[in-house]
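User: Teach me something about this protein's shape.
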Amino acid sequence: MKGMKLAIMAALVGLCGVAQGQGGRQLRLSLDEAQAYALEHNAAMKNADLDMKKAEYDSWKTLASMFPQVSASADYQNMLGYEMVMGEGPTAFHIPMDPSGTLTITASVAVTGAQIVGTLLQKIAREVTDITRQQTEQQTRSSVKSVYVSILVMEQTVGLLDSSLANLERLAATSQASVEVGAAEQVDADKLQVQVAQMKSSISSTKRSLQALRNTMLLQLGADVDAELVLTTDVDDILSVDNAMQLMGRGFDITKNYNYRLLEQQELMARRNVTMAWMNLTPTVAAYYSFNKKKYFGKEGMNMTPPNMIGASVNLPIFSSGVNTVAIRSAKIDLQETLNNRQQAEDGLRVQYNQLSYDLATALETFDIQKRNLDVTKRVFDNLTEKYKFGRASSLEVTNASTDIISAQSSYIQAVMSVINAQTELENLLNE
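Assistant: First, the predicted structure itself:
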């Protein structure tokens, strides 16, 4: 029973993914969890969500302008005892102008062709904002993946360099002991000590780069910059050659590409702008209803204000000195330019697909070579260190082998990142 309780507690901690460590808050994240965390907390994603809400409000604002608008007003008048006199002498007719107040309520509606097209344009703008938000989400996922893999590879590098340093330090100590008993020359021991120093410098540089990557990851996640980051996905699980090969074999459906979808919306917007220019030639239809209530604060005076009133109007443009004609022609030119840009962009995307597929294939070949090269270089180094212990290899050979390991590790890192970057760019292009 006690073991089961411990297992349940461990599962809850794993599901949470966030723990409290000695140095502060700890984030234990797989790649999928890191991407999901960034989508929720990243500042760029928050702004993209706000832009989407703003687009919805703008769309509603344009639509609401076509609905009836109601306004109310009230006023008070006091003519300070003034009376209106009609006629002269005893037959004069006195009309008192007592204080009064008036309440007016007006409901009106006006509809134009431009308003209708404006509503359609706002719908397009909202769709553009949504596509841009999805594109931001895609870029956030890609950025997190790239830095995530970089951290994993750097951690592997530190581990390999630490192992090589331990071997060099043992060889340096053995060499110095041999010098002290007269079995070896001091210059050989000094060479190994220099190589140990170079290896330590390389490890320190790699650790500084690793910390910089961790800071970058925390910023991308939108997490506390003092949090301790623990990555739980292995680099081999991310770097799948089979997935990369399948990606290249899927073909290119250009309609899924976000940039192409934005071009489609730009074309649709250009067509609506042509329609908008034509709408300047259409009439404006308006109607209103007005209610008035006048109250005298004294004797009832002369009230010539009707309590109810309705009206309607139609405004038809007749002559505008050619302004509307020029606007229509200009909008048609903008549409043609948009069509030209879309065709050029479509060709460019297809060329980009071919190039990215080629880059990924090349990166995979290079990765396979560098992975084998790193394995061979490490085995050569281990072999030489064993030979050096028994005097069958020189210090120069060991020094060169340790330098080769650093070089091979650097080439391996570049190969891994080339595969990840090429695969990510192709995934973004295909919207996978």
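Now, about its shape. The chain has two domains: 19-65+113-280+322-430, 69-111+282-316. DSSP finds ten helices and nine strands in the chain. If you'd like, I can walk through any region in more detail.
User: That's plenty for now, thanks!
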